[in-house]
């Protein structure tokens, strides 16, 4: 059997981080060699949270030190955008391949990371959504937008989410932008009596962000035409739904020497 891929995870105590720790440590092809967090420097994961019982892996607060001591192949980045950008740049500088789920990176940051990864010929996968169904929902929406110019994206998430609109909603709109003839939707003279009531505007499309306790991650794309509408919806009911894509990305990034934005680009 080939040597396991040595993985480090950023944001291990988070909702996604915990699920990723579980997935990586239960997979024989991977070895969790370290984690990076804001706190708990030098502790073992099992000391940090009872959920990590028996996981004998060191917590680092400095990514460079983590990389130098553990010599990982891959960084799984699941923290916050403010930290993620620096983490990805550091990983690339050490030739550690990033697999990034953290959303909220802006266009310039993504562009800079693409240039760095491509120039250094280091695989890097950034996926706003790792759920297979979500990727299909985005692709189906893109297919449909060729025929329906009027699009409203409604993303719905738990109320602890920091960024709005979601990374998935932005990626969906970008994919649609590639095929849709730009159009300002609604009545040309419409007036928002309450600011924001028509949602965010992306090339005339509208994006609405719902935040409620009880939700996990959901998105509806509504397309309207002459006397008909088409509704495409995806629901993640738990964070295990994202792990198929995280696992595939870790395996795939090891054989890449360029930047990838979106899981759809590595699915067969
Ligand atoms: N691509 C995808 O499929 C998915 C992406 N996400 C994204 O993943 C990110 C994390 O989401 P959640 O787990 O729900 O958030 P969370 O708030 O539960 O977890 C974030 C964790 O990062 C830690 N953190 C903060 N600063 C850090 C630093 N400098 N270094 C290391 N860790 C640090 C926090 O202490 C926290 O434990 C968000 O950006 C979210 O939008 C979430 C679900 C799916
Ligand atoms: O914060 C979340 O939870 C999620 N974030 C990602 C996003 O912003 O699209 C992916 C998924 O929707 C869950």
Automatic annotation (TrEMBL):
Q: In which residues is NADP(+) bound? A: 38
Q: Where in the cell is it found?
A: Cytoplasm
Q: Which residues form the Dihydrodipicolinate reductase N-terminal domain?
A: 5-130
The cross-references to CDD domains, in alphabetical order and at most eight, read: DHDPR_N
List the InterPro entries: DapB_C, DapB_N, DapB_N_CS, DHDPR_bac, NAD(P)-bd_dom_sf
Binding positions for NAD(+) per the UniProt entry:
11-16, 37, 101-103, 127-130
Q: What is its main location?
A: cytoplasm
Reaction(s) catalysed by this chain's protein: (S)-2,3,4,5-tetrahydrodipicolinate + NADP(+) + H2O = (2S,4S)-4-hydroxy-2,3,4,5-tetrahydrodipicolinate + NADPH + H(+); (S)-2,3,4,5-tetrahydrodipicolinate + NAD(+) + H2O = (2S,4S)-4-hydroxy-2,3,4,5-tetrahydrodipicolinate + NADH + H(+)
Keywords in alphabetical order, please: Amino-acid biosynthesis, Cytoplasm, Diaminopimelate biosynthesis, Lysine biosynthesis, NAD, NADP, Oxidoreductase
**EC identifiers of the protein:** 1.17.1.8
Could you cite one Gene Ontology molecular function of this protein? Answer: 4-hydroxy-tetrahydrodipicolinate reductase
Amino-acid positions noted as binding (S)-2,3,4,5-tetrahydrodipicolinate in the UniProt annotation, renumbered to this chain? 158, 167-168
- Which pathway does the database say it acts in? Amino-acid biosynthesis; L-lysine biosynthesis via DAP pathway; (S)-tetrahydrodipicolinate from L-aspartate: step 4/4
- Segments forming domain Dihydrodipicolinate reductase C-terminal: 133-267
Residue positions of the active site? 157 (proton donor/acceptor), 161 (proton donor)
Q: NCBIfam families recorded for this chain? A: dapB
What this protein is reported to do is described as: Catalyzes the conversion of 4-hydroxy-tetrahydrodipicolinate (HTPA) to tetrahydrodipicolinate.
Q: Self-association or partners: how does it assemble? A: Homotetramer.
- Report the family membership: Belongs to the DapB family.
Q: What is this protein called?
A: 4-hydroxy-tetrahydrodipicolinate reductase
């Amino acid at each position: 059997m080939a040597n396991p891929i040595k993985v480090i995870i950023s944001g291990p105590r988070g909702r996604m981080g915990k699920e990723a720790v579980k997935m990586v440590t239960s997979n024989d092809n991977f070895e969790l060699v370290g984690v990076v967090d804001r706190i708990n420097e030098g502790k073992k994961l099992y000391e940090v949270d009872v959920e990590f019982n028996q996981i004998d892996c060191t917590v680092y607060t400095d990514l460079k030190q983590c990389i130098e001591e553990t010599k990982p192949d891959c960084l799984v980045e699941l923290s916050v955008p403010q930290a993620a950008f620096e983490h990805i740049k550091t990983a690339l500088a050490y030739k550690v391949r990033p697999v990034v789920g953290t959303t909220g990176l802006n266009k310039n940051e993504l562009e800079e990371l693409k240039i760095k990864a491509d120039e250094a010929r280091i695989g890097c996968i950034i996926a706003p959504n790792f759920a297979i169904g979500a990727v299909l929902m985005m692709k189906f929406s893109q297919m449909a937008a060729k025929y329906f110019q009027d699009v409203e994206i409604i993303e719905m998430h738990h109320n602890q989410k920091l960024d709005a609109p979601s990374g998935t909603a932005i990626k969906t709109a970008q994919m649609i932008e590639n095929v849709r003839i730009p159009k300002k939707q609604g009545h040309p003279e419409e007036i928002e009596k309450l600011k924001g009531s028509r949602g965010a505007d992306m090339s005339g499309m509208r994006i609405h962000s719902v935040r409620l306790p009880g939700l996990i991650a959901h998105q509806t794309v509504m397309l309207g035409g002459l006397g008909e509408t088409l509704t495409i919806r995806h629901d993640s009911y738990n964070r295990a739904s994202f792990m198929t894509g995280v696992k595939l990305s870790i395996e795939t990034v090891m054989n890449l020497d360029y930047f990838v934005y979106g899981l759809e680009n590595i699915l067969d």
